[in-house]
Amino acid sequence: VQLQASGGGLAQPGGSLRLSCAASGNIYSINVVGWYRQAPGKQRELVAAITSSGWRNYDDSVKGRFTVSTNNARTTVDLQMNSLTPEDTAVYYCNYRQYSGNMYWGQGTLVTVSS
Fold first, then answer.
1. What are the beta bridge partners of residue 115?
2. In the chain, where does DSSP find H-type helix?
């Protein structure tokens, strides 16, 4: 599975950004798709994910502000980010996880929230 992320950049506090991730390869065995992020000096953490049954999971810090979505073919996974705060500044990684537990990562896209 190959993942290509795009859409990062600079946003002002209170602003919005949309991240997109395009997947190719053997995506038929994928169970969960989503986004992680890693802020400077911190561990990578789950931001949002969708399971194959359509269940969505969000980190408490982004609930009500971020929305994760995917298409029927699961060839894309997007993250709409609203009401951004400086604490959302991080490198964001899209992630695909197979039923076997194998995980695939995009190259990371930097999101900076600053005035």
1. none
2. none
Dist CA 22 CA 42 (whole Å): 26
**44 in Cβ contact with 37 (< 8 Å):** yes
Residues 2 and 106 sit within 8 Å (Cβ to Cβ)? no
Tens digit of each residue's pLDDT (9 = 90 or more) over 52-79: 999 999 999 999 999 999 998 889 999 9
Contact between 79 and 66 under an 8 Å Cβ cutoff? The reply is yes
Instruction: Tell me whether strands 17-24 and 66-70 are parallel, antiparallel or unpaired.
Output: unpaired
Q: Is the dihedral of CA 27, 30, 34, 38 positive or negative?
A: negative
Tell me the HSE value of 14 on the side-chain side, using a 13 A CA sphere: 1
User: Taking residues 19-37, what's their average pLDDT?
Assistant: 93
